[in-house]
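Subgroup meeting minutes
Present: P.N., E.W., G.H.
Scribe: E.W.

1. P.N. recapped why we're keeping a running log of single-chain structure predictions: easier to compare across weeks, and new members can see raw inputs and outputs side by side.
2. G.H. added today's entry (108 aa).
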Amino acid sequence: MIHVRTRLTADFTVISNALAQRRGSAVTVGVAAYISSLPDGAPVSITALCEHFSEGAILISRALRELEDAGYLERRRERTSTGQVRTRTYFYDVPGGGPEPDPESPPK
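Output recorded in log:
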């Protein structure tokens, strides 16, 4: 194969080769690339992801679990000051890596 590359200077996302070339579901890699491209605070619920992808909830849910099991994704259930439970989702460029997320900053 020959790569024909264009130097991108805006509107692109960098993902690690470890993630892009991981064994397993292509859906999982696609979901990871999509989540990586989103701004902080964007919704990444199964419903929101199903609105973007043609895959159904079962495959999207499975992809999120694979990313969680591999250490790329972390979901934390938290109770708000009003007593509501919400899920904060953290996405890591490196499995389980990076500093402890600041709970005051918007979730990814």
